[in-house]
Design goal:
Layout lengths: L11 H10 L3 E5 L3 H10 L3 E4 L3 H4 L11 H12 L6 E5 L9 H15 L3 E3 L7 H9 L4 E6 L5 H4 L9 H17 L3 E5 L3 H10 L4 E4 L7 E4 L1 H4 L17 H17 L11
Parallel strand pairs: 1-2, 1-8, 2-3, 3-4, 4-5, 5-6, 6-7, 7-8
Helix pairs in contact: 2-4, 4-5, 5-6
The structure holds 3-methyl-2-oxobutanoic acid.
3-methyl-2-oxobutanoic acid binds next to strand 6.
């Protein structure tokens, strides 16, 4: 794998160029300084401070409970570890759907208090006023369509979205509206690969897929899933690159044993 080290800092323009040249965009979630520093140094293009922090960091069942203050805490930690990647932060549930002024206030807090580079909002036509107001303030916006987890109680299930023609048509229309509004990119979550291909090819802005097949302009995974920290979540779309759960368990068991056996610390490990 070659990481383009000539690029000092990834910007929304870089992502646009990557789409034009056919270079796929890599994106991963992060929620803290230490992992963000590793991912950035490894050459990831985009770090998403996802509201999936609600699940994987706080242990909630859904993304709904996480607050704007909590997202700001995670995002400001991530930013301190990043030199090169573009950092995108999710606006949490309830911080932008109500009215566009509130949406702008939430996005401004994220940008001012974290130093992040862009925000992401879930939804299409119904939130376009909020998106336009945020963009008018000079804040880059990424869209998110398909399985939008903040609407899980409306969907009732985490299964693939837009399999039916009516929902697929709404998604096509929403994608066009988000592009016309000025979004710099679009996450497509858990939709049929052929639909994602069609949308990706019809848009000038890059699409980033999760469970949306190989034709998207980039891919995103939640770090806990990719690294095998969370072993209960095994959807078809997930490729697990490590079994960190097993490795950490083995290491900690080893440490416990060494402490109990009075093996740790030894003579060299003390002052
Ligand atoms: O919150 C998140 O992690 C996300 C990704 C799944 C795209 O929105």
């Amino acid at each position: 794998m070659s990481v383009n080290r000539e690029v000092k800092r990834i910007t929304t323009n870089t992502l646009q160029k990557m789409k034009s040249t056919g270079e796929k965009i890599s994106m991963i979630t992060a929620y803290d300084f230490s992992f963000a520093k590793i991912f950035d140094a490894a050459g990831i293009d985009v770090i998403l401070v996802g509201d999936s922090a609600s699940n994987v960091m706080a242990g909630h069942e859904t993304t709904l409970p996480i607050t704007l203050d909590q997202m700001i805490y995670h995002a400001s930690s991530v930013i301190r570890g990043v030199e090169r990647s573009l950092v995108v932060v999710d606006l949490p549930f309830g911080s932008y759907q109500g009215n566009s002024k509130e949406a702008l206030a939430s996005a401004v807090r994220i940008m001012k208090e974290t130093g992040a580079h862009a925000v992401k909002l879930e939804g299409g036509e119904e939130i376009v006023e909020s998106i336009k107001r945020i963009l008018a303030a000079g804040i880059p916006v990424m869209g998110h369509l398909g399985l939008t987890p903040q609407s899980i109680y409306k969907f009732g299930t985490y299964t693939v979205r837009a399999k039916e023609e009516a929902e697929a048509n709404k998604l096509r229309n929403d994608a066009r509206i988000l592009q016309e509004s000025g979004c710099f990119g679009l996450v497509l979550e858990k939709i049929p690969a052929l639909l994602a291909k069609e949308v990706s090819e019809s848009l000038a802005i890059p699409t980033i897929g999760i469970g949306a097949g190989k034709h998207c302009d980039g891919q995103v995974l939640v770090m806990h899933d990719l690294l095998g920290i969370n072993t209960e979540f095994k959807p078809r779309f997930l490729r697990q690159y490590l079994n960190l759960h097993e490795q950490v368990t083995t290491a900690v068991k080893h440490y416990i044993k060494d402490v109990k056996d009075r093996d740790f610390p030894n003579e060299q490990e003390q002052y």
